[in-house]
Write a structure and sequence with these properties.
Arc Repressor Mutant, subunit A; two-stranded antiparallel ribbon
């Protein structure tokens, strides 16, 4: 494996002895002050874990120093996010992140949501519509208004129920 791995770093820091040793090394403690309260075998195991994880480096003289590059190296390993395509550009984790500025794309997004929220022939109260739209946005009033304005959702004249437009 090339370079440090985030799981190994977190697992190492999850160990109490290693975490204390790392903190003391970061603060520049002398070797004798790194975990003097534990047995030598435990101390050596904690330091070995820090070295293997790449959190600390050992100089030629044997001095332990915190790695200057460990976190930068870990961040550089993160894969670049693939650009989202189509209507997914406007959604994040199944919720509307932003509405398309392009009217045709906005209509397409709204049509998809309307089709997912209400079945053909189904009649819902405003409250039921709001509950279903809540999974897409916190601003259900705006989304419901868009669905009506774009002719995707019909409201009875009394405003008591909604259904998909025919």
């Amino acid at each position: 494996m090339g370079g440090p791995h985030w799981r190994r770093v977190l697992a190492t820091l999850g160990n109490g002895d290693a975490r204390i040793a790392y903190a003391r090394i970061v603060l520049g403690a002398a070797p004798a002050d790194i975990l003097p309260e534990v047995k030598e075998q435990r101390r050596n195991r904690a330091i070995a874990g820090l070295l293997e994880a790449g959190l600390v480096d050992q100089s030629v003289s044997g001095e332990l120093v915190a790695s200057d590059s460990i976190f930068r190296d870990l961040l550089a390993q993160q894969p670049h996010r693939q650009p989202r395509m189509g209507l997914d550009r406007f959604m994040r984790l199944g919720r509307i992140e932003r509405y398309p500025a392009n009217v045709a794309e906005r209509r397409e997004l709204l049509a998809r949501i309307a089709g997912e929220v209400i079945a053909p022939g189904e009649k819902l109260s405003e409250r039921q519509v709001n509950e279903r739209l809540l999974s897409y946005t916190d601003d259900v009033v705006l989304l419901r208004r868009y669905l009506v304005d774009f002719g995707l959702l019909e409201r009875t004249p009394s405003g008591s129920s909604y259904s998909l437009a025919k």
